[in-house]
Design a protein that fits this description.
Number of helices of chain A: 12
Strand order of the largest sheet of chain A: 7-8-6-9-10-11
Oligomer: homodimer
Structural class of chain A: alpha/beta
Strand content of chain A: 15-25%
Distance between the termini of chain A: 32 Å
Helix content of chain A: 25-40%
Largest sheet of chain A: 6 strands, parallel
Amino acid sequence: MIPTPYLLFLGDAPDKLAAKVAQGIKDWRPENAVGQLRLEGCQADLGLTDMTLEEAKAAGAKTLVIGVANRGGVISPVWKEVLIAAIEAGFDIASGLHNLLRNEADLVAASMAHGTNLHDVRVPGIDYPIANGVKRTGKRVLAVGTDCSVGKMYTGLAIDAEMQKRGMKSTFRATGQTGILITGQGCPLDAVIADFMAGAVEYISPDNDPDHWDVIEGQGSLFHVSYSGVTMALIHGGQPDAIILAHEPTRTHMRGLPDYDLPSLEALRDMCLPIARVANPACQVVGISVNTAALTEDEAKEYLAKVEAEMGLPAVDPYRDGAERLVDALEAM
Amino acid sequence: MIPTPYLLFLGDAPDKLAAKVAQGIKDWRPENAVGQLRLEGCQADLGLTDMTLEEAKAAGAKTLVIGVANRGGVISPVWKEVLIAAIEAGFDIASGLHNLLRNEADLVAASMAHGTNLHDVRVPGIDYPIANGVKRTGKRVLAVGTDCSVGKMYTGLAIDAEMQKRGMKSTFRATGQTGILITGQGCPLDAVIADFMAGAVEYISPDNDPDHWDVIEGQGSLFHVSYSGVTMALIHGGQPDAIILAHEPTRTHMRGLPDYDLPSLEALRDMCLPIARVANPACQVVGISVNTAALTEDEAKEYLAKVEAEMGLPAVDPYRDGAERLVDALEAM
């Protein structure tokens, strides 16, 4: 677990998009975001108070989270200066960068000298067990996509937020680095060794109250040949009671695979359900989440109505419309 | 790649079964097995010439393969003595043991001093790429099981051997440690990091002649919740043209999962084919391999006839009957 709350490091972000991890934290866990730290030339602004390390410390921040992508795959000298000063001030550092904090000798030396921790969320910190398939108490919902990067994390966070708003018991279970940084815990499933993938999902979603929902973050797609094994392990380790199909309607091919068409939502449902029922015979597909960012308001409305009629299930864009109708469907189970 | 041929180390095997890796090498790659080395009390005998290290060296052996399971998860002092003497005599050592050769300081020191290599086949030796899904030339066949450990490796080795006998072009592509030790190369797929599983399968089964068959070793089962992600990656990375369903008819539940029933062969076919056709739309299920070791001759004959009638596909036990009819079906494609 990463100690919260955070000071969000935006570095010298060239634009808003580069700081999307920090944006995600601010959007979904504002209580974790004490302030922002920006370097000269930073083009991103979350609208949080700009703080020095000392100010953030005084405001209670425990971890400096690198909320921005770096350029060229190296941690620049300018960044290093801030990170080392943060460690010296007693902050933990958390990062989802490809180049690991733990591979930087100066950061390791500083954190050892000051008794702080470096959290590389791309690397599993636990030796996960092999899955045992035993049925767990509590309820679980998983978003399964027609493709990668269609909004599965957003869908899960929106469902969890709506459940919290209604006073339901729920926990978002992160399975990727952005989700882990947002919530402060989880498993970077794509970095787990093959034999332990499903066991990792069981581990992060243990027995719970009968009326508690684990909202498990989806990964990959059963139809994406590069990552389908990860999706499979999520479905079999997660034992979902409910599945939300996730889709982006303007893709012309599977992400990164120009020769692969996207499946229809019907094809995804028909492949997904028999697989899910191996682990949970009661599993149902209860709703559809569509990322309509590339459509106009009218196009989105029309598309969602069409999908809803064809599939006989509530179809919403949780970003435009909220996740109310998805949570209605989950509550009705 | 592990240098061949081998001297097979049987150690102090308590029985024949403990030496099944060595037995597999002798059965499937007899040309790789120069001789056997047994310690006092060894209860296994492959019928090979017993050799000292010096005799094996003179006979051309390049690698000492640990062909036996060890007890208690440690490499005993008696074994160590032989392994170090082998290294000093210029042998590479190859092992599929859980406790790695590379973690034994004395073996590492000896191999460095003598310029030999330690091959821990449980650990991937390559940084595999992420799968790109690009269609490869050549043909591929994969065995997919109703459960783990139903005879998928044996089926593949038997198909490869029959193809060789007919003068067809074929290569067995090992994906587990026993297969790697038998053939001297391959990928320990269950030890690969999730994101790279399908890429590893693409890597070990590259473009080939149009009439060449890669016989890819199957792993796990789509219905085994602990390992289904590995099976999925094999199907999507392998792009099989042909699938052989593999089954063991006397199992009362999935291996290690007492609450999980085995699927029917029909259910396996119906789940498997749509998944395989994502990566290769032309994929077909062409035959069934049944491990009838637990049945009498008559029971086996009756069971195979029943399956063949129900599924409309050749159903054979390659151990009892050979793989001729499976290869007939593959040749006819």
